Each structure stands twice: as structure tokens, then as C-alpha cells.
């Protein structure tokens, strides 16, 4: 780091939170860092968010960003510092060798950051990472710093993964091709194989699938050996049984919902004129209460052109106003859907490349959310009390839809046909079912309202999110031992 600008200025707790450089990790990480920094326990709490260099440049796209790549910055509450994975081009590792290279490069970079903080008398007292970061584990061991895992998916997913690596993998793998086979895991309702996170049942032998398994295996081995605290972006009433069960195995702190507030400035890695002009908010303002269908598939999913055409057809069949997000990189084959988006805009709907989703979901005009069921989108829908029509694709989304439909009854699943497509007719059926006046629609809307109130109580000052976060911070004790940093200086070490 080039200078002291943006670095925490006092003694006390100092959390270095390392986030994967994608949208779905950045916002919950930033909200957590903010809450830590504002916590006010017995000693000052500082939080630094570290992201890959490429992400840092997208977060702060000023001409100075390139020169800031070696410098910490601050927004007045938390600090930001970029780290390098050696490639610095935003690409995913190609293979195992590439992964190993990047792990070493990231470790070196993060280690230098930790050493720099220590040398300036602001030692990092706890390293954290979103879900899993092997370099964080390496650096924490090297510097004798405790680690906490920030699990940004439901605790149900933590449980499934935990049990997979603790005795259940053979059972799951041996039925991986039978989507209807039900597996009973401790603390969970019976779960069909088809609702397991995709990489656990991926039998294709793909490089990516293997990489996920390897990384998660190392995560759970690390957890068994080092017993890191685990912060989860959920709240007790959402997943009571699973939380109770997982507390038997891990030191779990439920610190959710971590969605910030609808008026708080959020970091958007996807930029579009709309996001600054907020024309879609003006458009929403002109719509009737709970009349709009909001459609968005997060920051990763790509839809086929055929799927996007079906979605647009379904929306038109309903004849209800809609706000549709189609990211620039959100269509497969780099193509446009048959219905040009221009044409679509002249109809009932508005199409944008990106929006401030939390602000949209919080608007009273929104009546339902057609979603891929990523966890951030799901918990944002819960907090906003908006019913969900789930069109899951992969990862935890396949499990999240189960929670939405079967456990919480705040939405329904849009079924795919034999070609894996959710047809326009099916989408229209789901929208009518959720937005209409049937007894089922009433239950879904009422449940959404009730969960919203519970979620807001958890998020409010003095609620369970704040209380559990404070309990977590209190478990970190400053010890009198010292350790040697990379540069030979001595710094205080911290014990959990
Ligand atoms: O126009 C948009 C579209 C999305 N978002 C935000 O982008 C985030 C998207 O996150 P999420 O809903 O979790 O979806 P993904 O981006 O697909 O997230 C990946 O990471 C998540 C966390 O691990 C997993 O739950 C998902 O399955 C995985 O696909 C949310 O905060 C949205 O509010 C916007 O602000 N504007």
C-alpha cells in the first residue's frame, strides 16, 4: 500500500474481509464490513474489504483507479484494498495448475497487505472470507491470525455441504442421476436429489465441477481442524431446525439478513445509464400498487435466446406491467432474443440492462419477482415481502426454490419442459397464480408479508443480526502473544 490514506487509524479489532470479486459476494460483504465497523463494542472495530484488483477497478472506475491498485481507500466507514491473483484480468482459472498459481499469487499479495497493516500498528485481528478462499487460510496460518467464514448462502446449503463431506457423499453420489430420490440429512426435511446444489450431483467430470469439489473439501477439512467461526447470512426464524443442528457441528452465528437498506448506496459492478438516471424508478412510480412483475436472473446466469423469447411471450400473455433485466452478458451465444428489446419497451414493459434491485423490490408497485433464486435475490425478496416465481438454474438455486415453495410458501417454481425451457405459457400460469385471487395466491402473499416483518425485526437495531454479530466479535480476544510478520516487525496476535 502506497500511503496511509484510508487505513484504520486506531487500535482495536481489525477485520480483513476478503471477497470473491463478483456481484453476489461484494454487496453482502460490504454490508457485513459496514455493520462490523459501526458495531460499537468495548473496543473500536475496523473493517477492511479486500477484493481482486479487477473488481476494485470496477468498483471505483475513476481514472485514478489504476494507480490506486496498490493503495487503500476509504468511504469514511470502512477501508478497501485490492489484492492481486497474478492474472488481474477477471478471468476464472483455466485448470488445476492455473488455480495453484493464482492461489500462491493471492496469498503473497494478501500476506503483504497483512504485513503492511501490522507494520503500521494496525494489525489484522481476524481474516474473513466469503464462503471459501484458500489463500485466506494460507495467510492466516502464516501470520497466526484467526479466520471466520462468511457463508453468504442459507444455512441449509452449509448443512448439505457439511454432511456431504461428513459421511453422506457416497449415498448422494450413488443416486445423483435420480432427481426424485429423497435424501434425509440431519436437521433438514427430506431433500430430493434434484434439489441438491448442482456441483454435488455433477457427474459430467467437468473441470469446473471437480474444482468446486476440491475447494469445498479443503474448506471442510480446514473447518474440522481449525474450527473457524461461521457467520451466515440468514436469520433464525427462516431455518430454525437446520441452524439448531449445525450449531452442534460448527460455531454458527446467524447475522442476516445482510441486505443493507433500500436507500443506501450499493456497489454495482454492472454499470448502465439507467442506474444513474433511475428512469425505471420513475416508470415504477407511475404503476399501480403491486401490479408490476419484476424479472431478473442475477449477475451470473445466461439465458438462451429461446428461453428469453419464452419469458417475453409469457410476460405479454399476462398483460401486466413488467420490468425485465437483461444483462449485456446475460444471453447465450452473444445474441439478441428474437423480440428486440426496443420492440418490447414499447409494450407494457420496461427492459433495462441493470437496476438497483433492492430499491426496485422495495417499491410498492412491485407485485412479484421472477427470479433464478440466487441467495441474495431470495433474501432481498424476503426482506421486501415480494412473492417469488422461481426459475432456478444451478448451484444453491435448486435448493433455494424448495425453501421458497415448500418451507416458507412465499412462491412457486416455474417448471421446465423436456427441453429444459420454461415456456411462456408456464410463466404466465405462474404469474397469474401468484398475482391472482386464488386461495393459494392469498397464502403466498400473506406468508410473504409475515416473513418480511420477521426479517425486518431481525435486521433492526437491537435485532438478532446485530446481537449475534456483537456476540461473534466478543469471542475475539486480544492475547499478549506476538508474532513475526513478513517484514520482520512484531505485531499483536489475536486468539479466538
Ligand atoms: O439488475 C440487477 C440484477 C441483480 N442485482 C443484484 O445482484 C445480486 C445478485 O445476487 P444473487 O441473487 O445471489 O445471484 P447471482 O449473481 O447469480 O449469485 C451467485 O452467488 C450467489 C451467492 O453465493 C448464489 O446464491 C447464486 O446461486 C449464484 O449464482 C443481488 O444482490 C441483486 O440485488 C442488481 O442489483 N441489479
UniProtKB/TrEMBL annotation:
<dbReference type="GO" id="GO:0016757">
    <property type="term" value="F:glycosyltransferase activity"/>
</dbReference>
<comment type="similarity">
    <text>Belongs to the UDP-glycosyltransferase family.</text>
</comment>
<dbReference type="InterPro" id="IPR035595">
    <property type="entry name" value="UDP_glycos_trans_CS"/>
</dbReference>
<protein>
    <recommendedName>
        <fullName>Glycosyltransferase</fullName>
        <ecNumber>2.4.1.-</ecNumber>
    </recommendedName>
</protein>
<dbReference type="Pfam" id="PF00201">
    <property type="entry name" value="UDPGT"/>
</dbReference>
<dbReference type="InterPro" id="IPR002213">
    <property type="entry name" value="UDP_glucos_trans"/>
</dbReference>
<keyword id="KW-0808">Transferase</keyword>
<keyword id="KW-0328">Glycosyltransferase</keyword>
Amino acid at each position: 500500500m502506497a500511503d496511509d490514506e484510508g487505513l484504520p487509524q486506531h487500535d482495536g479489532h481489525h477485520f480483513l474481509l476478503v471477497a470473491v470479486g463478483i456481484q453476489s459476494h461484494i454487496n453482502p460483504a460490504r454490508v457485513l464490513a459496514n455493520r462490523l465497523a459501526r458495531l460499537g463494542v468495548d473496543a473500536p472495530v475496523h473493517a477492511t474489504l479486500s477484493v481482486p484488483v479487477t473488481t476494485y477497478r470496477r468498483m471505483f472506475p475513476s481514472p485514478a483507479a489504476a494507480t490506486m491498485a496498490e493503495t487503500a481507500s476509504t468511504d469514511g466507514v470502512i477501508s478497501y484494498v485490492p489484492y492481486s491473483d497474478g492474472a488481474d484480468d477477471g478471468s476464472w482459472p483455466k485448470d488445476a495448475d492455473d488455480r495453484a498459481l493464482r492461489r500462491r499469487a493471492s496469498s503473497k499479495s494478501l500476506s503483504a497487505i497483512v504485513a503492511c497493516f501490522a507494520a503500521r500498528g494496525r494489525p489484522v485481528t481476524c481474516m474473513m472470507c466469503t464462503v471459501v478462499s484458500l489463500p485466506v487460510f494460507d495467510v492466516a496460518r502464516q501470520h497466526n491470525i484467526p479466520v471466520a467464514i462468511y457463508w453468504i448462502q442459507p444455512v441449509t446449503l452449509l448443512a448439505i455441504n457439511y454432511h456431504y463431506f461428513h459421511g453422506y457423499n457416497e449415498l448422494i453420489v450413488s443416486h445423483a442421476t435420480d432427481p426424485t430420490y429423497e435424501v434425509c440429512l440431519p436437521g433438514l426435511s427430506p431433500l430430493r436429489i434434484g434439489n441438491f446444489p448442482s456441483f454435488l450431483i455433477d457427474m459430467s467430470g467437468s473441470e469446473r465441477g471437480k474444482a468446486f469439489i476440491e475447494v469445498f473439501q479443503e474448506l471442510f477439512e480446514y473447518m474440522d481442524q481449525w474450527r473457524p467461526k461461521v457467520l451466515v447470512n440468514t436469520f433464525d426464524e427462516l431455518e430454525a431446525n437446520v441452524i439448531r443442528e449445525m450449531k452442534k457441528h460448527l460455531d454458527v452465528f446467524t447475522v442476516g439478513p445482510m441486505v443493507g437498506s433500500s436507500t443506501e448506496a450499493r456497489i454495482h459492478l454492472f454499470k448502465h445509464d439507467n442506474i444513474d438516471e433511475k428512469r425505471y424508478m420513475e416508470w415504477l412510480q407511475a404503476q399501480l400498487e403491486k401490479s408490476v412483475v419484476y424479472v431478473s436472473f442475477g449477475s451470473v446466469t445466461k439465458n438462451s435466446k429461446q428461453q428469453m423469447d419464452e419469458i417475453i411471450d409469457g410476460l405479454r400473455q399476462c398483460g401486466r406491467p413488467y420490468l425485465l433485466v437483461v444483462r449485456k452478458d446475460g444471453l447465450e451465444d452473444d445474441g439478441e432474443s428474437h423480440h428486440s428489446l426496443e420492440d418490447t419497451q414499447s409494450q407494457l414493459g420496461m427492459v433495462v440492462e441493470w437496476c438497483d434491485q433492492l430499491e426496485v423490490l422495495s417499491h410498492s408497485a412491485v407485485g412479484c419477482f421472477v427470479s433464478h433464486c440466487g441467495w441474495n435475490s431470495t433474501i432481498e425478496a424476503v426482506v421486501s415481502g415480494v412473492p417469488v416465481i422461481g426459475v432456478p438454474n444451478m448451484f444453491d438455486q435448486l435448493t433455494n426454490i424448495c425453501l421458497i415453495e415448500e418451507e416458507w410458501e412465499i412462491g412457486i417454481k416455474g417448471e421446465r419442459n423436456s427441453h429444459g425451457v420454461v415456456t411462456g405459457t408456464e410463466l404466465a400460469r405462474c404469474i397469474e397464480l401468484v398475482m391472482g385471487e386464488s386461495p393459494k395466491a392469498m397464502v403466498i402473499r400473506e406468508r410473504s408479508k409475515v416473513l418480511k416483518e420477521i426479517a425486518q425485526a431481525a435486521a433492526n437495531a437491537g435485532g438478532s443480526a446485530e446481537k449475534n454479530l456483537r456476540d461473534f466479535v466478543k469471542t475475539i480476544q486480544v492475547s499478549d502473544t506476538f508474532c513475526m510478520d513478513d517484514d520482520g516487525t512484531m505485531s499483536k496476535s489475536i486468539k479466538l
